[in-house]
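Recap from last week: sequence in, structure out.
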Amino acid sequence: MMKKSDRIAAPGLWLVIAKSYRALSLVAEQSIANTGLGLTDFAALEALLHKGPLTISEIQDKVRLASGSMTAAVDRLEKLGLVVRRSSPSDRRARVLELTAKGKRLAASCFKRHAKDLEALMSGLSEKEKEQLYGSLKKLGLLAAEKLEKQQTQLKRNKQRAAK
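Predicted structure tokens:
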């Protein structure tokens, strides 16, 4: 246990966050595998279950998957009768994916099981610890995103200056 006077250095904190993320990811992936679905298929079904009908690119944005992986997943899910592709009412070029009744049942059942597994894992933390962790990680993530955005903006400016 650390003494109150011990300062947690940023590299040490980063290491704890990274190792925790890896371990938690493996537990979550195993939970998903236990549903009988692959990670990509689960992610697509979960997005459709909670967000409603979406285009393939909207699902990709939500679950951060490559185009080829997403297309293969959608093809698999459609072949299994879990999703249907429909024409978009607002864009004739786009196709909207929608869960079938069978897809809704499977997605709801798999997500419920996965959520239960995650709840069991997180039960090692008190409600107060969960709230603190949530707030701290959210804050850190927003700070990192802001820093990254500033760096990318600066990089664009430097490239534009160099091109002149």
